[in-house]
Specification:
CATH topology: Ribosomal Protein L22, Chain A
Number of strands: 6
Strand order of the largest sheet: 1-6-5
Strand content: 25-35%
CATH superfamily: 4'-phosphopantetheinyl transferase domain
Distance between the termini: 8 Å
Shape: globular
């Protein structure tokens, strides 16, 4: 299975600026929210990347019942992203996130 998503960073930034904490509560886990709040210049790249990554995971898993807050996209000590669902690391899911000036894209593959 494979899932892919692309999102305009400006769209995510606009949603955050309009809805604030409510928007974060729908998208990020508590751990991810903490990371987002500590970011400075790249916080909207982070948020858009996480949104795209979670959407890619949902598409890959083919389970629309997955809540974004049940999916965590974290980084290893080397910076490589990995997926946790409901607190369990999913070694069978590989995730890649990339950004340009205007877009964030993520691909998730189930091995």
């Amino acid at each position: 299975m494979l899932g892919c998503d692309i999102i305009e960073i400006s769209r995510i930034k606009k949603a955050y600026l309009k809805y604030g904490e409510k928007f974060l509560d729908k998208i990020l886990s508590n751990t991810e929210k903490k990371i987002f709040m500590e970011k400075e210049g790249s916080k909207y790249f982070y948020l858009a990347g996480r949104f795209a990554a979670k959407e890619a995971v949902v598409k890959c898993e083919d389970k629309k019942i997955l809540s974004y807050t049940n999916i965590e996209i974290l980084n290893s000590k080397t910076g490589k992203p990995f997926v946790k669902i409901k607190g369990v690391v999913r070694d069978d899911l590989k995730i890649s996130i990339s950004h340009s000036k205007d877009y964030a894209i993520a691909v998730c593959a189930k091995l």
